[in-house]
Design a protein that fits this description.
mainly alpha; 2 domains; three-stranded antiparallel β-sheet; 5 strands
C-alpha cells in the first residue's frame, strides 16, 4: 500500500498546481504560458530522482504521475493552442478537481468495490465521483461558452471516464488532458452523434473485457485492442473497420480452434499488447496517412497489409491442423508442423485463401466494384508478404533471440513481434512492384 502522507502531499501539489495553471491561463499570454509549462516540466523531470523531492514524486508502486502531469498539460495546451481558452481551462479543471475527488472517494472503505481494467486497481466510488464531478464541470463551466446540449456534455464525460479507467501508474495525468483535448479539437464543427460515439466507446470495452475473460488476450492486449477499436470505429469510416474486424474475428476463431486441438498451443495463444500492435501497426499508420493526405495509395497499402497479417495468422493456426509435417526453409528438412520457418501445403492454401478473401471484401467496400487485376495484385502481395514473414522467421528470429532488450516471454516486445512487423511491411512493397509490372 502507498504511504498516505506521501499520497496526500502529491495530491495537494496536484490540486495546487492545477489551480495555479487555471489562474495563469486566465491572465498570461499563450507564449509566456508555454514557456512556463516547459520550465515546470523541466523541473519535474530534473528532480524526479532526487531524494529531497521524494515526497513530491514517489510512491511505493513507483507512480510516474508527476512525469505524466507536465506532459499532459503541455500536450493539451499544444493541441488546443489555436482554440478558445475555455477548452484548455476546462481540461485543467477536470484534471485538477475530478482526479482529486476521485482519489478521496476511493479512500472510502465500506461498500466500495475495486476492479482492474489495465494494470492498476480502480474503485467503484472513485470512478463514480470522477464521473459526477466531470459532468458538473463540463456542464457548469463549458456549456455556457459553447451552448452544447447535454448529450455532448455526457459524451465528453464518458470519454474522460474511459481515459481514467484505462490509465495506470499515474498515466491518467496524460491520457485525460491529451485525450479530452483531442476530443474537443475533432468535435469542432462536426455533426456528432453523441449516442453513436458513446456506443463506440462502450461496446468495444465490453468486447475486449470478454476477450480477456476468455483468455484470448492478456490484460495489455485487451487494452490495446480496445484503443484500436475506438480509433477505427470512431475516427475512420466503417469501411476501414470491416477488414480489421474480419482479420481479428477470424484470427480469434482459428487461434481458439488451434488451442483447443493442440496441447502445445494452449499455453501460448493469449495475445499480448505487442502481438496485437505488431499485426496492425502499419495498417494503422496507413489509415492515419490517408486521413491526412486523402491519397488513394494508402488504401491499397492498407488492404495489402491486412491481407498479409490475415494470411500469416491463418497459415500459422490452420497449417498445423491440416498437416502434421512442414518443410523448413532454414535447413530444407521436414519438421513437425508449426515450427518457425516451416511451410506446409495446408498452411500455404490457408494463406492464399485468407489473402484473397481480405482483398476481395476490402476492395469492394472501398471502391464499390470488383477489379480483377487489382484484386489479384493485392492478393498476391498479401500472400508474398506472408512468405516473407516465414523467411524472416527462419533466418532472422534466431539472431533476434540474442538481443537482450527483447522479451522471450511476458508482455514485452519479442523477436517474433519484430519478425511480424517486418514481414507485414513487405505487403505494400510487393503491391508497388507488382503494379508496375502489370
Amino acid at each position: 500500500m502507498e504511504n498516505n502522507n506521501s499520497l496526500l502531499t502529491r495530491k495537494s501539489v496536484h490540486f495546487g498546481t492545477g489551480c495555479l495553471i487555471f489562474a495563469l491561463s486566465c491572465i498570461v499570454g499563450r507564449e509566456m504560458l508555454l514557456l512556463l509549462f516547459i520550465a515546470g516540466a523541466s523541473f519535474s523531470f530534473i528532480t524526479f530522482n532526487y531524494r529531497e523531492f521524494y515526497a513530491l514524486h514517489k510512491t511505493s508502486y513507483s507512480s510516474l504521475g508527476t512525469l505524466f502531469y507536465p506532459l499532459g498539460v503541455i500536450s493539451s495546451f499544444l493541441v488546443l493552442y489555436n482554440q478558445p481558452g475555455y477548452y484548455f481551462r476546462t481540461v485543467i479543471l477536470v484534471l485538477t478537481i475530478s482526479d482529486v475527488i476521485a482519489w478521496l472517494a476511493g479512500q472510502i472503505k465500506p461498500f466500495n468495490v475495486s476492479f482492474r481494467i489495465s494494470y492498476d486497481r480502480k474503485s467503484l466510488f472513485g470512478i463514480l465521483a470522477f464521473f459526477i464531478t466531470c459532468l458538473m464541470i463540463l456542464h457548469l463551466y463549458l456549456a455556457p461558452f459553447i451552448g452544447a446540449n447535454f448529450s455532448f456534455i455526457l459524451l465528453a464525460t464518458v470519454v474522460s471516464v474511459t481515459l481514467e479507467v484505462i490509465s495506470f501508474k499515474g498515466s491518467d495525468n496524460l491520457t485525460i488532458p491529451f485525450g479530452l483535448s483531442l476530443f474537443f479539437l475533432f468535435s469542432q464543427g462536426q455533426a456528432l452523434n453523441p449516442y453513436w460515439l458513446i456506443a463506440v466507446i462502450l461496446i468495444p470495452a465490453a468486447g475486449c473485457i470478454l476477450l480477456f475473460r476468455l483468455n484470448i488476450l492478456t490484460r495489455g492486449g485487451s487494452l490495446t485492442a480496445y484503443l484500436l477499436a475506438v480509433y477505427f470505429a470512431g475516427v475512420t469510416d466503417f469501411i476501414w473497420v470491416f477488414p480489421v474486424l474480419f482479420f481479428f474475428i477470424s484470427s480469434v476463431l482459428f487461434t481458439k480452434l488451434h488451442a483447443s486441438l493442440s496441447i502445445a498451443a494452449r499455453s501460448s495463444y493469449r495475445r499480448n499488447a505487442w502481438q496485437v500492435m505488431a499485426n496492425i501497426i502499419w495498417a494503422l499508420l496507413c489509415s492515419v496517412l490517408f486521413l491526412i493526405s486523402h491519397n488513394e495509395i494508402f488504401i491499397f497499402f492498407f488492404i495489402a497489409l491486412i491481407a498479409a497479417v490475415t494470411a500469416d495468422t491463418w497459415a500459422s493456426e490452420l497449417g498445423p491442423l491440416i498437416n502434421r509435417k512442414s518443410f523448413s526453409v532454414s535447413d530444407f528438412k521436414m519438421h513437425p508442423a508449426g515450427v518457425t520457418g516451416g511451410i506446409s501445403p495446408g498452411g500455404t492454401m490457408a494463406a492464399m485463401v485468407a489473402s484473397v478473401c481480405v482483398s476481395v471484401i476490402s476492395y469492394y467496400l472501398f471502391f464499390g466494384e470488383i477489379h480483377i487485376l487489382t484484386i489479384a495484385i493485392l492478393s498476391v502481395s498479401g500472400f508474398l508478404a506472408c512468405f516473407a514473414d516465414t523467411l524472416l522467421g527462419a533466418f532472422a528470429e534466431k539472431e533476434l533471440m540474442k538481443w537482450r532488450f527483447l522479451n522471450k516471454d511476458g508482455e514485452g516486445l519479442s523477436p517474433n513481434d519484430l519478425v511480424n512487423i517486418a514481414g507485414s511491411a513487405t505487403g505494400p512493397l510487393f503491391f508497388v512492384f507488382l503494379s508496375r509490372m502489370g
